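ok posting inputs for the magnesium ion job
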Amino acid sequence: MTPAAVAGAIQERGLARRMIASRQALLLVLILLWCLVIAINEPRFLSVQNFINIGDQAAILAIPAAVMTLIIICAGIDLSVGSVLALGGFITASSLVAGLPTLAAVLLGIAAGIGIGLLNGAGIAYLGIPALIMTLAMLYAVRGGVLFLAKGETIASDFPAAFRYLGTGDLLGIPVPVFIAIGVFLACGLVLRSTRFGRYVIAIGTNEDVSRRAGINVRRVKLTLYAASGAAAALAGIVLASKLNAATTNAGYGSELDVIAAVIIGGTSLFGGRGTLVGTALGVVFLALVRNGLNLLGVSPFLQIFTVGALLFVSALADVLYSRAGRQ
Amino acid sequence: MPRENAPLVEACGIGRTFKGVTALADVSFVLDRGEVLALVGSNGAGKSTLIKVLSGVHPPSDGELLINGVPVRLRDPAEARQLGIETLYQDLSLIDTLDAAGNIFLGREPRTRQSLNRLLDTRAMIRDARELLTALNPSVPLDRPVSVMSGGQRQAVSLARAVHFGAQVVILDEPTAALGVAETALTLAAIRQFRSQGRSVILVSHDLVDVFAVADRILVLRAGRVVGSRLTHETTSEEIVQMITLGEVSPSRVVEVTQSGEGRR
Ligand SMILES: Nc1ncnc2c1ncn2[C@@H]1O[C@H](COP(=O)(O)OP(=O)(O)O)[C@@H](O)[C@H]1O
Ligand SMILES: [Mg+2]
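and the output
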């Protein structure tokens, strides 16, 4: 290769990345500015304990958000994650109560999540039901199922230490849920960037017809994605149950919206085909920081909800403008 | 068994109707290895339908298709592709958010051999993409999504994909319709390159200048039927235009028609 070609290649690379990176960079700047503003007004913000709290809270949302990123890149959506979260906690907690060892109970909880995810995937990929409707139906059905099975009661018990470790343990002072979330993010990132499956997620999200014509098994990709989403949601529910030392029937209520908000704020395109896990990680952290900061400042929880709405609007607007610019 | 010196593609009496409407009737032609066949005809002549029959999109209602002398039934585009027939539709076959390599290898990405979980071999992808593209259009950027590329660059990516899949027959539907002069020249060069590699090309085009520049033979369709076929060096664009607009005209008939004034209708 000639030096000119090398220079050209480097320049092209810079340009391509900058377009995507700029939104993440912007988000990072926003996060730092936000931290600065809060820290000036409320010194408690900068305490180690506070950051541990933020990480702990963010982790529960982060686990399903990682897989949700892939689903939205694939031009899908999963509204059932909040309900599946409750299901995962419920199944694992009741298995523990029934005397199953921790590992078996956890695997059973995750298996339940995968089961629901497979139903979602089958309805969407094989029956052609729109993802929004299929997973909305599942949101109701699973929440109702958990309420029915638990008779509306919380399952609390003297859970084994191994189980409690998932939600309350720490490594080098960092909560175990944070490590679990990071693990899930790294796995999803590897899949998206470095496997055929990840390519197909992007391809299907961009243009399903072309993908099918290229010989991609579109149905199988979707089925796998929703199954993974179910697994991640159930895992989040298990971690939450471990943290609270209880599985409640309203666990994760409404959290599907926070998860989706984090993904969109992180710059993943609503139109499909574009998105990053780094963006979603920043989105999750930003949401957690906003909540935490407003809390510390004593801002009304109602205004906190309003703020998330405003952030989401701005992100969606940025996405629309970006897509329009890209299409010229 | 493939016949020894059978033509690459042979169409015998192909017909296709859509709910009683005849789009193609009794179409027969032969495509040899390393031959560039141009398919011309006015709008509605049946060119696109014929292409779709050849690429497995529409099964023929009538007639037979032979590849290497073997009768085949193409039930879907994947089967056609397996037999080495690759069709490029204008702007319809690329994933906008993927880069050139992502598109060239889509569905068959090379993976690293050693690891258990078989990760993408992106290095090989970039290397092979560069090699395929330098021969077709060196201006194609390797690390940008195809959405930001020009029509000619996108087409080069599609062509590279066809080459990578080992296409024996490349079908191009109006490949130069949206291209500038320089990009058209690159596309025509690519077609010649395919021919020199022993691949065959079916070129649908309205542009007779392009057709005469690259085609070995011209097949004229009119109202779903073959009007005739001419070797490019034995015909003129005047004759082809007449065949397109008037149907088959023997030299004597040309005179007749012109004299009776019918030709000016
Ligand atoms: N899917 C279809 N359904 C009904 N009629 C069709 C269909 N495809 C093509 N036709 C008809 O077949 C004829 C040939 O069309 P086409 O192959 O598109 O011609 P060309 O590409 O040469 O312009 C036209 O009369 C058209 O209306
Ligand atoms: Mg046409």
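notes: The CA atoms of residues 33 and 214 of chain A lie 45 Å apart. Chain A touches chain B at residues 8-9, 12-13, 15-16, 190, 194-196, 199, 202-203, 205-207, 210-211, 213-216, 273-274, 326-327 (CB under 8 Å).
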